Inverse folding.
């Protein structure tokens, strides 16, 4: 997936703060994400295996670059407790150049 800024926003949800913090910290330490914002109090309503579900979740907004998405997804699938964790990748079309440069800096870090 391409974006005009070279930055991607990955959206996900977590069942609780502990899980969100653990996975978020791992992604940042592994240089797969520059930053992850954890938004408490998200209410999700969805159908799963024929049942309507309503859950309180933590919304995760992960800032990364295209070259890191595949490995980020692999780590998420390995660490996340959900059978099918949400992973929605959105291109960032622009923003504060200083911030975008900082996010892009993870491309040079390993």
């Amino acid at each position: 997936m391409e974006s005009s800024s070279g930055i991607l926003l990955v959206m996900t949800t977590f069942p609780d703060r502990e899980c969100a913090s653990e996975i978020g910290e791992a992604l940042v330490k592994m240089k797969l994400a520059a930053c992850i914002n954890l938004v408490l109090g998200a209410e999700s309503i969805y159908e799963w295996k024929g049942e309507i579900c309503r859950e309180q979740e933590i919304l995760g907004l992960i800032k990364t670059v295209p070259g890191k998405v595949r490995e980020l997804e692999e780590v998420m699938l390995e660490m996340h407790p959900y059978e099918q964790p949400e992973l929605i990748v959105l291109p960032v079309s622009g923003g504060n150049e200083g911030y975008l440069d900082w996010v892009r800096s993870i491309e040079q870090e390993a």
About this structure: The beta strands are 7-14, 35-48, 51-64, 88-92. Residues 7-107 form a domain with the Alpha-Beta Plaits fold (CATH 3.30.70.120).
